[in-house]
Amino acid sequence: MTKELEIIELSVSAGSKSLLSKVSFSVRAGELVAVVGRSGSGKTLLTKAIMGLLPAQLRAEGEILLGGERIDQLDDRGMDAVRGRRIGMLFQQPKRVMNPRLTVRAHLLEALGAHGAGKARRHEAQVESLLHEVGLAPAAEIAGKRPDQLSGGMAQRAMLAIALAGNPEFILADEPTSSLDSILKSEVLELLRRKQQERGLGILLITHDIASVRHIADRIVVVSDGEIIDQCPTAMIFSKDRHAKTRELVDATQAGPRQRREISSGCILEARSAGKNYTRRSKGRAALEPTTLRLHAGEILGVVGRSGSGKSTFARLLAGLEKPTSGQILTHHEHFTPNAVQVIAQEPFSSFDPALTLRKSLSAAVHRLPVLEATKIVENAMTQVGLPLQLLDRKPGQCSGGQLQRIAIARALLVAPQVLICDESTSALDSVAQRHILDLLLELRDRLGLCLVVISHDMDVIRYVSDNVAVFYEGELVEHRSLDEFLSSAEHEHSQDLVAALSATSGV
Question: Which domains, from first to last, does the chain contain?
Answer without folding.
Answer: 4-86+170-252 (3.40.50.300), 103-167 (no CATH), 266-336+419-428+449-508 (3.40.50.300)
